[in-house]
Design brief:
This protein has about 210 residues and is mainly α. The protein is built from 8 helices and 2 strands. The chain has a two-stranded antiparallel ribbon with strand order 1-2. It is elongated, with a radius of gyration of 25 Å.
């Protein structure tokens, strides 16, 4: 099944159907409760589109429709053997093989010397504020899931994102402090000249 590439939402859909058969609205509700939008962006429209595409790829199949009261008919789906094989292949690869994803933050850090030190610190403090909000949301989600007595196997993905967010927040806070105290030397003409002189002294001497 290595020829099938699943999107993050496709992995979510097949993962839910590997537990039991359900209709798309159930998938949306369950994924929203367990993951929120921390792991994958979930909107009803995109979820229905993903279900349709996976059905065309024969990774899932409809097993019937039902209607409750005046609500529209809902189609229930189950994962196929082809779908389960594709899901397992994708998960094995994602867990085992690191992927260089080129996030924006490392590039911004590498080039932040193009700003003044004060501006860079101010921007970092703003980002840290956003991260604090995300951490608070994670903790609310975790408390909600714990109240529902959800096993850790269903929350481990969110737990990882939470831990990574906390680590990023603390690392950036230390960086901002180091810039403010001068522990982190900011770019200056003196630094540029010193580096240029160091590079010149290490150059090979030609005859």
């Amino acid at each position: 099944m290595g020829d099938v590439s699943l999107t993050p939402l496709g992995i979510t859909v097949l993962g839910l159907l590997s537990e039991r058969s359900m209709h798309p609205y159930e998938m949306y509700q369950l994924a929203s409760v367990r993951r929120g939008d921390q792991l994958v962006k979930i909107k009803p429209g995109s979820l229905y589109h993903t279900v349709s595409r996976l059905e065309k790829q024969e990774l899932l199949a409809s097993i019937g429709t039902d209607r409750e009261g005046n609500r529209p008919e809902r189609t229930t789906y189950e994962i196929t053997a082809r779908g389960r094989s594709a899901l397992e292949h994708q998960l094995r690869e994602m867990l085992a093989v690191p992927m260089r994803e080129y996030p924006r933050l490392p590039l911004a850090l590498a080039e932040m010397h193009n700003l003044s030190a004060d501006t860079a610190v101010r921007m970092l403090r703003i980002r840290i504020g956003h991260l604090d909000e995300s951490i608070a949301e994670f903790e609310q989600t975790r408390a909600h899931l714990q109240a529902l007595e959800k096993p850790r196997i269903f929350t481990v993905g969110v737990d990882y994102v939470h831990a990574a967010t906390v680590a990023e927040r603390n690392w950036l806070a230390q960086l901002a402090e180091d810039i403010e105290t001068g522990e982190f030397e900011w770019i200056s003409q003196e630094l540029v000249d010193r580096l240029a002189g160091s590079a010149g002294s290490s150059a090979p001497i030609k005859d």
